């Protein structure tokens, strides 16, 4: 089965135009930040950061 949708340009290939490489890096950064946000949310929800609570 072929996946249809937006083509994901490889940002590490030098033969692609600069616009496509920047688009590829934007996708990489976006999904990296989504992953970091999801992991952080799971850690907060599970209480892994309970030692970092505010102490006033």
Q: Per DSSP, what share of the residues sits in E-state strands of 2 or more residues? A: under 5%
The total count of helices amounts to 1
Q: Helicity level, as a percent range? A: 40-55%
Order of helices and strands: H
Number of strands: 0
Class computed from helices, strands and strand pairing: mainly alpha
Described by the principal axes of the CA atoms, the overall outline is elongated
Q: Segments where pLDDT lies below 50 for 5+ residues?
A: none
Mean pLDDT across residues? 83
The major β-sheet equals:
none
Could you tell me how far the N terminus lies from the C terminus, measured between alpha carbons in angstroms?
57 Å
- Rg on CA atoms, Å: 18 Å
Can you describe what's shown?
The chain has one helix spanning 18-46. It is mainly α and 56 residues long. The chain contains one helix and no strands.
Outline:
52% of the residues lie in helices and 0% in strands. With 56 residues, the chain is mainly α. It is elongated and about 50 Å long.
What topology does this entry show?
Blueprint: H1 18-46
Keywords:
elongated; mainly alpha; 56 residues
């Amino acid at each position: 089965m072929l996946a249809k949708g937006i083509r994901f340009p490889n940002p590490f290939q030098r033969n692609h135009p600069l616009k496509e490489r920047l688009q590829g890096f934007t996708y990489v950064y976006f999904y990296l930040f989504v992953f970091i946000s999801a992991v952080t949310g799971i850690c907060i929800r599970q209480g892994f950061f309970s030692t970092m609570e505010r102490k006033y």
